[in-house]
Write a structure and sequence with these properties.
Layout: E1 6-9, E2 26-30, E3 35-38, H1 57-79, E4 83-89, E5 92-97, E6 103-110, E7 112-117, H2 124-137, E8 147-150
Helix pairs in contact: 1-2
């Protein structure tokens, strides 16, 4: 379990700041040493104060939920003897207003598409059960107020 950390760094440099036109570009450094550029979303703070090439907090939130679900899915599939060859997810978060008129992440939709191989392939029902079980185990899905849904994409 334990503690999970991210170190954020932002510096003003020679920006005026008080005019509210400062760069929102900053970095996030994780405990393994990886450092990524982050910024506010251009949909929230206009360019050039936001950097559209950087990861924004809303994207990171969606990616974290999708990653947690995927990691549980892979673990459960391996436990049950299903060989996964690839896992792709086009996850999306939808912002909106809550009952107190605050802007919140209203929903996160996971759209995983999983390819299996081997002599033993799971049925549609078994794949859906794996996703259900992965969702039930996902720490992050249990940690958020918004609905987190999963709609697996399966090739016919």
């Amino acid at each position: 379990m334990g503690k999970h950390t991210a170190e954020l760094r932002w510096t003003r440099g020679d920006q005026a700041f008080l005019d509210n036109r400062y760069s929102r570009l900053h970095s996030a450094r994780f405990d393994g040493g990886l450092q990524i550029p982050m910024s506010s979303s251009p949909g929230v703070v206009a360019v050039p104060m936001s950097d559209p090439a950087a990861v924004d907090p809303e994207e990171a939130f969606v990616a974290a939920l999708a990653s947690c679900h995927m990691l549980w899915f892979l673990s459960l599939a391996a436990r049950d003897g299903w060989r996964v060859d690839s896992y792709r997810d086009a996850a999306a978060g939808t912002m909106g207003r809550d009952e107190r008129n605050r802007i919140v992440m209203r929903e996160v939709l996971l759209r995983p598409q999983v390819d299996f191989s081997g002599d033993r392939l799971p049925s549609r029902e078994q794949i859906e059960q794996l996703h259900h079980d992965a969702h039930a185990e996902c720490f992050l899905a249990h940690s958020v107020r918004c609905e987190v849904r999963c709609e697996p994409v399966m090739e016919e």
